Amino acid sequence: MKLVSYNIRYGLGRDGKYDLERIARSVGGADVIALQEVERYWERSGMVDQPQVIADFLPSYYWVYGPAFDADASTRSSDGVVSNLRRQFGTMLLSKTPILFSKLIPLNKVASVNSFNMELGALEGVIDTKAGAVRLYSLHLGSLSERERVIQVNQLLAHHRNWHSAGGAWTGAGSIGSTDWTQEDSTPSTPHAILMGDFNTVPGSDVHKLLTGHPEPDYGRVSYIDEFVDSLHVVEDGETCAPYTYWTDEPDRGQQDKQRLDYCFVSAQLADRVQKAHSDTDAQGSDHFPYWVEMDL
Predict the structure, then answer these.
(1) ∠202-203-205 over CA atoms, to 5°?
(2) Which domains, from first to last, does the chain contain?
(3) What is the pLDDT along the chain (297 residues), one digit of tens a residue?
(4) Environment class of residue 225 by beta-carbon count within 10 Å: exposed (0-12), middle (13-18) or buried (19+)?
(5) pTM of whole model > 0.90?
(6) Using CA atoms, how far apart are residues 78 and 107, in angstroms rounded to an integer?
């Protein structure tokens, strides 16, 4: 199974042009696609419904969209008729097999005084694979500070560690009184999870260590059952494949020219299924690059 994560920067490419078809070409062929910075009805990107446009370019995929940011973008005509539109910003999951259930997890943030900060989230989709049900996430952590990202990762880890007690999308009996709510088999609950997205942090950071553990002098990086493994650490060519997923030509912003900000973390039980990992630095559709992982799923 091929997985790809891509922060598409709402379709704005390195050439300064908005092109969602180019985004679709870059990720087409993957079995699961995780996209970040997908928006609806923003003036800067032409007031289009980007999730629907992307889905139209990839018609063989099932998809869900999770807008963590939602604001009014409605208009009223001269005769008083309201065109109800929501200005949204969030993450998207597409899969060649059905996404059985999904949920949006709004990520906690800290109110800032003089720096822009907005609502972000993690979109969870349960997908059935040959290895059984897997929870896949398309997520976007805050760019403002490591303090905020640590809060958000702890929130995600708490959600992951609580999978067994929270259960699936529904639990218990299938009816309340005479009304049947399920209409089908119960939703699968699974310990297996894959986190894909823009983590806005570099290898070795506090956020990275929270997810994968601290390297130990005697045992190296211990894989605990309730933590994750960096997919790049698993593959044999992990030291030689392109390590960066983001590149900026604005060094005056205080950022390095090339950084690794996008990841695929797999729950420890799935680590031995990772076969390949690389970033596609030829893609021109965003200031980020698609990060690809192949797994035996």
Answers:
(1) 75
(2) 2-72+86-169+185-295 (3.60.10.10)
(3) 999 999 999 999 999 999 999 999 999 999 999 999 999 999 999 999 999 999 999 999 999 999 999 999 999 999 999 999 999 999 999 999 999 999 999 999 999 999 999 999 999 999 989 888 999 999 999 999 999 999 999 999 999 999 989 888 887 766 666 677 777 666 777 899 999 999 999 998 999 999 998 878 888 778 888 999 999 989 865 555 667 999 887 656 555 578 999 999 999 999 999 999 999 999 999 999 999 999 999
(4) exposed
(5) yes
(6) 39
